[in-house]
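User: structure tokens for this one?
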Amino acid sequence: MRGYSLIELLIALAITAGLGALSMPLFKQQIESLSVQQASSRWLSYLHQVKAKAQREEDSIIADFVPLEGSSKVFELATESTYSSTSPLIFYGVSGGAAPGHIRIMNNSNTVKVIISSKGRVRSCVSHGPALPGLSSC
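Assistant:
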């Protein structure tokens, strides 16, 4: 007779299930890290667009944080910034300068800062937690 017995198939299935259960925490950690990285990329892209618009129109533009800030219940991300309604993030016309400050994007294991300098340079870095690909540490 050729083939596998029921016991052999059950043993193979049990080993596969055990390996899958062991890999779940790593998978969850990877998903959380990628969500923080993706959120910082969205912030960078948005801020670069606002800066480019200010330079193109040669006028000061206030960045609107409403579409991107707050908490995301899906990935448990929280966002905090040094900007407020009394001291907003403003990009100044042709020079591309800006009001300096930062935006922090956080979850349980990582914190990424999006830093805006007075010269209008926008960058991101990991301020807390394990290193993320493509982001330097602060």
